[in-house]
Write a structure and sequence with these properties.
InterPro entries: 5peptide_repeat. The protein has ten helices and 27 strands. Strands 1, 3, 4, 6, 7, 9, 11, 13, 14, 16, 17, 18 and 20 form a 13-stranded parallel beta sheet that branches. Strands 2-5-8-10-12-15 form a six-stranded parallel beta sheet. Strands 19-21 form a two-stranded parallel sheet. With 502 residues, the protein is α/β, with parallel strands linked by helices.
């Protein structure tokens, strides 16, 4: 590899140096006690080196270091053939290709790494990368893919920090935990779980990766393929332009979204998120009932720091986002889920957005109080049961208040007691619509008054007048009911519609 910039931190080849344009020359690491990299060794020394790799015991897969080396398609093919086993699979231990350049169809097809495969800062021109299996970490950080490429790999982890794809790219993966921090897809990048096992790689490595992945997600290895469970986990999209990203059949439970942009344009297929704890759990100083919903891992970290039981704590040294930063993430991802017709998760993210807005302290007090009431009476319009209970409580409270102070006293007839056949004068006392309620407590709660109050309360739900004469306090109680109870009914119907739609 030649070009400008600082010299590498290893003993490099230095051939093809030009004092005017490139004083460093080839940056390929020198092999053993030789003075040149693999690409610039004389042909007979190349053959000696490759033959030595082939003679190494198969139980100790050869570790190789070709940092900064320029590989043609022919040179890489010879290197892979030198370490092929009896099945035609090329097997390495730990391989270092950091800063290397691969020209032509340098694809690492049917290659297995029993250790790490380090391609940090490498440059590729191939249209295919893999299929390959890596028992350790597959590091593509700062790598550059010049043309359209399909990457097929099974790995314990895939690190793509600042990786740049200059054309459309697709990644078909298995058992990998992918970190895309600050990745740069310039056209489009799709990531999905590969539906079948890779062929042409070591089965023992695939079995080890499968067992570790099952252990990581706490599932029995034999049940790993049941229920359409994703076999790829995204650990971070921080700093990524998500408008150029498409995800399908991946697990976003451990994914950090803080710092990503255009999340509302993220293309989502079948994805899963970290669920919230369910049931009564501790929250700060009081018990709280949590409803099951999809959440972001950042909300887990924040709630666990309060403290709260059942939520996952942040790793040591990890940053914790605040509700003010999480609300926009929920809002943008809700839009992406709605575009993907994923109604259950979009509803859960709407709930998460409203929760973060309610818990943001710098918002106006009136807005937070309004959100608190919205949450209490209907679960942000998503809990049909809570809205129904709120409506029934409001109707019950209305009935009690009307019986107490809202209905006028029962009309009474006053007059002297006379015997049959005598004439007398009787006076009917009717308090009228604005009359006072009866004062004796035994006259407050009677079946007749309960029937009248109930009829008034139920008619208020539908904006209808019950035709009852009311006291002045009763008139205001009815006016309040006509405002509150229809809203609660609408929230109940909205929650039912949302539940049926999901």
């Amino acid at each position: 590899m030649t070009g400008g910039g600082a010299p590498p931190d290893w003993e490099f080849c230095g051939q093809e140096a030009d004092p005017a344009t490139d004083p460093i020359g080839c940056r390929g690491i020198r092999l053993d006690d030789r003075t040149a990299c693999l690409a610039h060794l004389p042909p007979h020394e190349q053959e000696q080196y490759l033959a030595r790799l082939a003679r190494e015991p198969s139980i100790d897969h050869p570790n190789i270091d070709h940092r900064g080396t320029t590989f043609t398609e022919e040179l890489l093919e010879r290197l892979l053939q030198a370490v092929q086993d009896s099945t035609g699979c090329s097997v390495f231990g730990t391989a270092q290709f950091s800063g290397a350049t691969f020209s032509g169809k340098a694809s690492f097809t049917k290659t297995t790494f029993s250790g790490d495969a380090l391609f940090h800062g490498a440059t590729f021109s191939t249209q295919e990368f893999g299929p390959l299996a890596c028992k350790g970490q597959l590091d593509l950080s700062d790598a550059v893919f010049r043309g359209p490429v399909t990457i097929e790999a099974a790995a314990r982890s895939l690190k793509c920090w600042r990786t740049r794809w200059e054309s459309a790219a697709g990644m078909r993966l298995r058992y990998a935990k992918v970190d895309l921090t600050d990745a740069l897809p310039e056209v489009s990048l799709s990531i999905t779980s590969r539906p079948t096992e890779l062929e042409g790689v070591e089965e023992e490595v695939l079995k080890a990766l499968r067992l570790e992945y099952a252990k990581d997600i706490k599932v029995d290895e034999k049940r790993l393929d049941e229920g359409g469970r994703p076999l790829v986990r995204i650990r971070s999209l921080s700093g990524v332009d998500a408008g150029r990203l498409a995800l399908n059949d991946v697990d976003l439970a451990p994914c950090r979204f803080t710092g990503a942009v255009h999340l509302d344009q993220l293309s989502l297929g079948h994805v899963t998120f970290e669920p919230s704890p369910k049931g009564v759990r501790g929250w700060r100083w009081r018990p709280v009932y949590w409803r099951l919903r999809p959440t972001l891992i950042e909300e887990h970290y924040w709630r666990a720091s309060k403290p709260s039981t059942g939520w996952k704590p942040a790793p040591p040294g990890g940053t914790i986002a605040k509700p003010s930063g999480l609300a926009p993430l929920y809002r943008q991802l809700r839009k992406a889920l709605e575009d993907a017709k994923n109604q259950p998760d979009s509803a859960g993210f709407y709930y998460g957005e409203m929760e973060m807005r309610r818990l943001t302290h710098h918002r106006p007090l009136f807005e937070r109080a309004l959100l608190w009431v919205y949450w209490k009476v209907s679960g942000y319009g998503m809990s049909a049961l809570r809205a129904l209970v709120s409506l029934l409580l409001a109707i019950g409270l209305t009935v009690v208040l009307l019986m107490w102070v809202g209905l006028p006293a029962t009309p009474r007839t006053q007059g002297p007691v006379v015997t049959t056949g005598q004439n007398f004068v009787a006076t009917t006392v009717n308090p009228g619509p604005g009359g006072a309620a009866p004062r004796p407590i035994d006259e407050w709660f009677t079946p007749g008054r309960a029937e009248k109050a109930g009829r008034t309360a139920l008619n208020s739900v539908l904006f209808r007048s019950a035709g009852q004469g009311l006291t002045v306090p009763g008139t205001y109680i009815e006016m309040t009911c006509r405002l509150v109870e229809p809203v609660l009914l609408a929230l109940f119907l909205l929650a039912v519609r949302g539940r049926v739609k999901r």
